[in-house]
Amino acid sequence: MPTYAVTGATGRLGRLVIERLLDTGVPATEIAAVVRSPEKAADLAARGVEIRQADYDDPSTLPGAVAGVRRVLLISGDTPGQRVAQHTAVIDAARLAGVERVVYTSILKADTTTNPLAAEHKATEAVLAASGLPYTVLRNSWYTENYTDQLPQYLQTGAILGATGGGSVSAATRADYAAAAAAALTRDEDGNAVYELGGTAFTFDELAEAVTEVTGTTVVHRDMSASDLAATLQSVGLDAGTAGFVAALDHSIALGELATDSDDLSRLIGRPNTPLRDAIRAARG
Questions:
Q1: Distance (Å, rounded) from C-alpha 129 to C-alpha 13?
Q2: Distance between CA 139 and CA 198 in Å, rounded?
Q3: CA-wise closest residue to 59 among 31, 15, 96
Q4: Which residue, 70, 71, 66, is CA-closest to 50?
Q5: SS3 250
Q6: pLDDT band at 58, cuts 50/70/90?
Q7: Can you give the pLDDT at residue 1?
């Protein structure tokens, strides 16, 4: 019977968590990968991981997905507006199954931030607290990939647009957060735990400098107001709602809400986070 269940196991974070568990010596027979589409997990099955089919939007599938396991990693859903109900269904199933601990991927400073993504995370944390289950909350800052995935655009336009007002972001790579999640899932905790996770902070000016240095192509940071950023994004094809949302995320950075001086990430993974320039080099290929 598996010891650990990882939800969203074929997503970009979930797959990395399972790979990390395997790489650090957790037997495949102790891992259950909870997925919507088992065919997408064929490679994990080939390594001996138990595949359990379930869907956040179908609560009837969730009890079987967590039956018999001791600990569950609940990776947050990716559909805004539906996450609280989805997460509550998983937490309820875990409680009924007698799971010993739920580990949840939240957002940095979930209890105080104005970040527009935070409300559902804060609500999920409240559901966890009310469930009576021991829990570990991993409050992740931004992925470095939020920026390195945009390298082709940066290099084509020569600019990084933002409305961060000189604020910094404690981004870390997806692999770093996955390593932290695997560590939190397998470690013994007394009571509940909340970790504020983020890498070495950088400003958008520093991001532009790093891109320029690594690629040899000059890229500059163009900072503007949130309203001007939203208007610029609309001018290149984004709808008003999406443009405003992106600008609001940058405003959260300007307020310092995605920066942290916590060393929780490095302590969990047992090493410094992946340097920004290394992440850019890896993304460039």
A1: 24
A2: 8
A3: 96
A4: 66
A5: helix
A6: very high
A7: 77
Cβ-based neighbour number of residue 246 at 10 Å: 19
Dist. CA 278–CA 216, nearest whole Å: 15
Among 195, 191, 36, residue whose Cα is nearest residue 104: 195
The span from the CA of 133 to the CA of 52, in Å, is 22
Specify the length of the chain in residues: 285
Which two structure tokens, joined as six digits, stand for 170?
Answer: 């404690």
CB 221 within 8 A of CB 208: yes
pTM beyond 0.90, yes or no: yes
Rounded to the nearest 10 degrees, how much is the dihedral formed by the CA atoms of 134, 77, 13, 239?
-150
Place of tokens 């604020």: 167
Rounded (10°) angle between helices 12-23 and 174-186: 60
- In 3D space, the residue among 146, 211, 152, 194 whose CA is nearest the CA of residue 172 turns out to be 146
